[in-house]
Amino acid sequence: MENAIELAGLRKVYRGQGGGDDKIALEGLDLSIPAGSIFGLLGPNGAGKSTTINIMAGLVNKTAGNVRIWGFDQDENPRMSRASIGVVPQELNVDPFFTPRAALEVQAGLYGVPRSERRTDQILEKVGLLDKAEAYARTLSGGMRRRLLVAKALVHAPQVLVLDEPTAGVDIELRLMLWDYVRELNEAGTTIILTTHYLEEAEAMCDRIGIISAGKLVECDETSNLLKRLDAKSLVVTTEGQGVPALPEGVNGTRREDGALVLSYRKSAHSAMDLLDHLRNQGVVIQDMATEEPHLEDVFREITKAA
């Protein structure tokens, strides 16, 4: 299958109550997510990310448009459409009186998974909760509850897994464990959709990224191509002296707290070698140097500002 998710003309309007104004959450969103990819769905707060996810999961009714999940049209075959997707919500909504094992068994039953095909203990082991299988959810830490939500989303072996801010407020150990497991699932064929405010995570994990702003898709491309969009680069130089020497026009120089000289420039106008030659001609003694490319955060800021 070429695309795991296909959204066409997706529109969502929340009607104003008590005579209030209507709120347009999504305005004609067109988006295709390739099967087998790790796709980052990014955007500022209120851009429409959660609305998009909830519509795909069948939790929110769309106003207009078409949704296909793993080839199943949401209107024509809602049961198979929902069975093809698993969602890990941002909120830690777990039943405090269920144990992790019981919670997964109930979830599997809701999806009609036969007992002989259930992988409850296998999933609990993968998310590091097997030793807590019979502990009440109310006794679990926040990180363990986050793991439980991941486990619940996987009981029916969905072809598409959506992670909505999965590492918000979790420790480093859980974050690394989660990303290792996500990569393992992806290598096994699961399509991953990730929303996060930690853009360094999206840059490291996602092979393709879509950016939503004000309910519209403003950019969608491979991560490597997005990072090439900015005509910016930095040269970080360790020197003997302090201060900022005279620099060519269009080059900005600053000193970091560690004393390194940072030269910011446009790649189309200057090269690192030319700047190094310029510094030597100024009598600057260079001890070490490195270059820094733009990060996804810089690209995100530029795209959303323009939108």
Automatic annotation (TrEMBL):
Statement: the UniProt record of this protein carries the keyword Transport: yes
Keywords: ATP-binding, Nucleotide-binding, Transport
One Gene Ontology term of the molecular function aspect: ATP hydrolysis activity
Statement: the UniProt record of this protein carries the keyword Ribonucleoprotein: no
SUPFAM superfamilies hit by this protein: P-loop containing nucleoside triphosphate hydrolases
UniProt superkingdom: Bacteria
ABC transporter domain segment(s): 5-239
Pfam families associated with the record: ABC_tran
Protein name (Swiss-Prot/TrEMBL): ABC-2 type transport system ATP-binding protein
